Amino acid sequence: MISKVYSAVIKGIDALPVTIETDIVRGMPDITITGLADATVKEAAVRVRAAIINSGYTFPLGRISINIAPAGVRKKGSVLDLGLAVGILAASGQIPEKELSGYMFAGELSLDGSVCAVKGILNITEKACAAGRSIIVPEENSIEASVVRGAAVLPAGSLEEVTRHLTHALEIKPAAGSFMTGDGRRVRQETVDFADVKGQENAKRALLIAAAGGHGVLMTGSPSTGKTMLAERLPGIMPPMSYEEIIKTTEIYSAAGLLSGEMPYIMERPFRRPHHSVTEAGLIGGGTVPRPGEITLASGGILFLDEFAEMDPRVTDALREPLERKKISFIRQGETYTFPADFLLVAASNPCRCGYYGDPSGRCICTPGEVARYRQKLSGPLLDRIDIHLDLKGVAYSDLTGKAGMSTAEMREMVVQARRVQRARFGDVMTVLNSGMTDRMAEEMSYIDEEGERLLGRAYDAFGLSPRVLGKTVRVARTIADIAGKERVDAGDIAEALQYSRWEHNGNKDNNQRER
Ligand SMILES: [Zn+2]
Fold this sequence. Notes:
The chain is an alpha/beta fold and 516 residues long. It is 37% helix and 17% strand.
């Protein structure tokens, strides 16, 4: 008798539904599994056989042939164990075959028959839900699986429980409903607040603009200027995640195996801060079977690259493609793996090797040549793609004792408001944020008033700006106007945006300026 069981495997981040067909005929005891990677077959056969016997069932004598469809997809991992065992038990008449079509099975089996946690359960549950099937998952994964709205999630601790459920000897209770109610939002519990940052109101303003329009930021300043303190507070002013964003982000962490009982889903925007010695594979992703890198784990949130000038330029250069495409693809053995990489880039650097160039204390011990060489590392094609360049100054004593400036809650409110305006303007077609405007969109949808255009033209001529810098200035100015709720971008907005352009800070000509 042939049994048919539904399961799924993880490929990169996506789940691929598969069908397990099992046939048992008389003959020399033997088990062949087709459609699986070689090493995986042997290991799965050993686990499944032991789990069936140790759960008190009969491992059938005869020739067992198992086919996992579709063919041509490399299926690896232990997630199929439970489905394989159920298939054998059904093909040998120990479970009624007709019970199986309503279920999807996912879980690793240990030799004693317990069902162990697997990676990517959220993604697999979505596929089960879309196919209208209930899903039997490892107990440990059940909260994660319950994130999917409308899914019927049945948590199982052992193969015996699953078998007894399918033979109606007991009933596995569905996991308690989804963790989210209402529109899925939750008030963020901030442990840090922008109100704690004294005397850096200009920097806070720049970060507000960055969060509102999705503009990348480079902060340059000595160690005492609080670059890290500022960056750490940025997630707090980002808008709350929508249900779809929570699912998308949790899928990534689920597939990467980074969720746990304490953190079964991701409800807050990621804040990733890899060390400056991170490798290209660590940052971008990769490997023989591609794994997501920091850029994918930061998707929907913030990628903070501290000590940017100390990073290997080959590693940072690899950021260019994902910054533009908001995703990254790898091709391995003819198969394409695509991961999301839609993050807000925040880079930070000292202004020179010793860290104190330009500091009022005059502590810098670098020679002018050393300073120039160091600053050279803060230029190049990647940094051209960062909209906001911010020079941080030390904080004056009078600012430290002054009253608190903008708080996280106030700033977040402004970000949410500005994003609402952008969504209304773009209608979600090409982009929802000003930073994503193409040059053409920037031209057509920035609505700069006459005086603004005049100032822009004067700056372009006087400073020899490149078209790229001009475009960045327009995008940032549009965000500044959106924060203020203005329909037209005026000269004041343009002037403020010009402050964040690159040319102003270096004081000398760099590759952002036209040859003259
Ligand atoms: Zn120095």
